[in-house]
Design a protein that fits this description.
Two copies of one chain form a homodimer.
Chain A (H helix, E strand, L loop, with lengths): L2 H4 L8 H26 L4 H13 L6 H7 L7 H10 L3 E5 L7 E5 L1 H18 L7 H15 L1
Antiparallel strand pairs in A: 1-2
Chain B binds a DNA duplex (30 and 30 nucleotides) through α5.
DNA sequence: GTACATCATTTGTTTATACAAGTATAAGTT
DNA sequence: AACTTATACTTGTATAAACAAATGATGTAC
């Protein structure tokens, strides 16, 4: 469905403004599919992002700064995210002995199990993305890279 | 800059997951340019969106439902957005006489002036968008339309 | 015209975001 | 060693998002 129809706007002043509206609108659209998906699994999008980062380094620990630098949403407050994940038993935190300012975060077996649960249900989540061919997905992704400069 | 480098991830499992990460990341990137821009002008992104919708119908009023349906971010609480805009003197609200459940919202001269102020500074905001050619902007926009189905 | 469903907006509550300021450790300087 | 600066994380706070429930006006069925 064209963005003009989605937001009941006849036309945009130029193609760049149309793209801006489309990006923001599409992001909301994506989020509204992601949020209930992750909620059902007892995670938020950001919490899942952190777990995936930790699994990527497992069994090595990751410190807060590295987590932040690898997160899709850079504005997340890592301290509070990790607090939540500890509550749920998905990660552990320890003071790094070589630099006591840093915190070593590790994913637990329970955290890994939760990620497998997420992975098992991923195909459902990605159904809508297959409205684009693989080639188109690559094309959009590369153009977004170009947009950011 | 490639999304892989932005979030320090070597590779993605598939092109669709890469696109998902790229969409979310790019949206955050866009927002971090938009937010300070609008903040400096005393508006939020959603408040500006409402004002632009009202200007589109001016001098006709717009009711809450129509505002919601035209907003880029559908989750916004229109009641509270309008409250803020009234505080700032940019809109007025009146009960619709033909259907007293509805609220007629109108943009004020001050609201129009604020929008002109925004428009005057828009070119700066859109500089980064010109990393894409007009053709590329159209292409991405159309592919996003296709993605949503 | 009373009862019931629907519609348009409002309010409440919980959680998350944005941003600034604070604390503790480490590293560099004189 | 004392002093400054930078680093890595924490805390506080004000605002906004998400979601459910409530209010009040209108339309519809009987």
């Amino acid at each position: 469905m064209r963005i003009e129809d989605e937001i009941h706007q006849k036309e945009f002043k130029d193609d760049y403004r149309r793209l801006l509206a489309n990006l923001l609108f599409t992001n909301n659209w994506v989020n509204q599919q992601l949020m209930p998906f992750f909620k059902e699994l007892g995670l938020t999008l950001q919490q899942h992002n952190v777990l995936a980062i930790l699994r990527g380094q497992h069994p090595e620990p990751v410190c807060f700064g590295d987590i932040q630098g690898r997160m899709v949403d850079r504005n997340s407050n890592v301290t509070r995210l990790i607090d939540k994940l500890i509550e749920k038993g998905f990660v552990t935190r320890d003071i790094c002995q070589s630099n006591r300012r840093m915190i070593e975060v590790r994913i637990t077996p329970n955290g890994l199990k939760k990620l497998q649960e997420v992975d098992a249900k991923f195909p459902v989540l990605f159904e809508s993305f297959h409205n684009l061919t693989r080639e188109e997905a690559v094309l959009v992704s590369n153009l977004l890279d170009k947009l950011r400069g």
